[in-house]
Design a protein that fits this description.
With 527 residues, this protein is mainly alpha-helical. The chain contains 14 helices and eight strands. It starts with a helix and ends in a 10-residue tail after the last strand.
């Protein structure tokens, strides 16, 4: 029973507790409902406020958009009206131009119609005139044939003969016109060429200062006294024979006081004999054994000197790589002369001149100078071997490894080979400059006089030549012609033809100037 009571009591307590909890829950629910209603009311008020603000903003935007649209509409309407006015004005202008063009076309059509009528009339007139001209041509042809027959009968010439005479006349006139043109072109070319050539050559020549030795085939050895002649001759002439045998030189002991002569065409042998004889006279011991000893020693020393001379010439020109055999041959040129001009000095001068001109013309200076130095190398052996100094020099240069440019320039310096390079032309010019200047060379008097006589004879062979004079040592041929037989144009042709004939018939150093003088003199006497 107590247990039941306890259970009941427990149940009552649980029920009471549950009722209290339910009461508390309802109170909370009521408070929560009240708060929810308050929040709902606040949200509705905020919603209505936001909607009111949005409506106001929307109305303001609509008003602004309406105003902007009206402004754009007004602006577009104004732009449209302006474009419409401009287009209307342009249409009006085009319409006016079209009207003017139509008027011009109408006027031109009228002018064309009038011109067509004029052309028709003129064509008819030309047709009529052509008929008349044809009739006149027939009449003229008949008269010309009649007159030609009359002229042939009077002059005794056929039409072919008259045509030939006319052609000869025209040929003469053409030659005169050509001569005038040639003279004008030559004057212009000569002026320009002289200006450039004088500048280049003057620069080259003024930088060359070379000494030239005039030698012959005879050397003179001065003696301290005439008694020395007997010692040189020796007993029964044994000393002089020993000296001539050892040197290959003819020793001439004559009545010339205080001197003996050494004669030989080989300048090296002549120099050996001269030095040996001077050394024998200074030593005082002159006999065949001593002569052979001194000659041998002098020969050795001269060979060394020849090599040194050749080496010095090559180094002076700036060529330390020349073959030793070529240096020996260069040194031998020191004792070789051509028309009295020392060949080694001439070779160096040609090298300097060609080098200076090559510098001015901006071509290969080393080739020009090297070819100038070696251009006469064949003269060192031309008395010992067969062949010209050109062919011998070419073979020597090829043998000792010189370049083809140098060989070609060397072999062209006498005009035997056509030059294919500027350097070859410069060697020819430099060789002529060195050889042809006054005092550089001398010729045998007889050949010199013969050349002058030949020059004057060639000039006198031409028709119309009155007098001919070879002047300036044969460097100029001055001719006086008969003015009544030759014209100025004929004088020009005479100078050219004469120059060509001289080039073909004569051999001469340098160049020869041909001057033709034609003058008319009027003479009257006052009495």
């Amino acid at each position: 029973m107590n247990g039941t009571v306890i259970l009941i009591a427990g149940a009552v307590i649980v029920l009471l507790a549950a009722g209290g909890v339910a009461i508390l829950g309802r109170q909370r629910l009521r408070r929560a409902a009240t708060e929810a209603d308050a929040l709902r009311a606040a949200a509705e008020r905020e919603h209505r406020r936001v909607i009111a603000v949005a409506q106001q903003e929307a109305e303001q935007l609509v008003r602004d958009a309406t105003i902007e649209a009206r402004e754009k509409l007004l602006q577009a309407r104004s732009e449209f009206e302006r474009e419409t006015r401009e287009y209307r004005q342009e249409l009006l202008g085009q319409e006016q131009r079209l009207e003017q063009h139509a008027l011009a076309v109408d006027a031109r059509a009228l002018a064309v119609d009038e011109r067509a009528h004029e052309l028709d009339a003129r064509t008819q007139a030309l047709d009529d005139r052509e008929v008349a001209v044809a009739l006149e041509e027939d009449a003229v042809a008949a008269r010309v044939a009649e007159q030609r027959a009359t002229l042939e009968r009077i002059a005794g010439l056929t039409s072919e003969q008259a045509k030939g005479e006319l052609m000869r006349t025209m040929e003469t006139e053409a030659r005169m016109d050509a001569a005038r043109i040639v003279r004008r072109l030559e004057e212009e070319a000569v002026q320009e060429a002289n200006h450039r050539a004088k500048r280049i050559i003057s620069l080259a020549i003024q930088r060359v200062a070379a000494d030239h030795v005039v030698e012959s085939t005879v050397s003179v050895v001065d003696l301290p006294s005439d008694e020395m002649k007997g010692r040189i001759i020796g007993r029964e002439g044994r000393n002089i024979r020993a000296l001539e045998t050892a040197t290959g030189v003819d020793l001439i002991v004559d009545d010339t006081p205080g001197a003996v002569l050494l004669s030989c065409f080989d300048p090296v042998r002549r120099e050996v004999a001269r030095l040996a004889l001077q050394r024998l006279m200074s030593d005082g011991r002159i006999h065949p054994g001593r002569i052979e000893e001194v000659v041998s020693k002098v020969q050795t020393e001269l060979d060394e000197k020849i090599f040194r001379d050749g080496e010095a010439a090559a180094l002076e020109l700036g060529f330390p790589d020349v073959h030793p055999e070529l240096l020996k041959l260069l040194g031998r040129l020191q004792y070789r002369t051509s028309y009295g001009q020392n060949v080694l000095a001439h070779a160096k001068e040609v090298a300097w001149l060609a080098g200076y001109m090559a510098t001015e013309l901006r071509v290969n200076v080393r080739v020009a100078k090297r070819a100038g130095l070696l251009h006469d190398i064949g003269k060192a052996i031309d008395r010992e071997m067969e062949g010209t100094h050109l062919s011998l020099g070419r073979d020597l240069l090829r043998k000792y490894g010189e370049s083809e440019e140098v060989i070609h320039a060397m072999e062209c310096h006498h005009g035997d080979v056509d030059p294919h390079s500027v350097e070859a032309v410069l060697i020819t010019a430099a060789d002529a400059l060195s050889a042809a200047r006054p005092g550089a060379r001398r010729e045998i008097l007889e050949s010199y006089l013969k050349r002058l006589e030949k020059l004057e004879a060639i000039a006198n062979d031409f028709k119309g030549v009155q007098k001919a004079f070879a002047i300036q040592a044969g460097r100029e041929l001055r001719i006086i012609v008969e003015s009544e037989k030759l014209s100025d144009e004929d004088a020009i042709w005479l100078s050219r033809d004469l120059a060509r004939r001289i080039e073909g018939e004569l051999t001469y150093p340098g160049q020869i100037k041909v001057t033709v003088i034609r003058e008319t003199r009027a003479v009257e006497y006052a009495r």
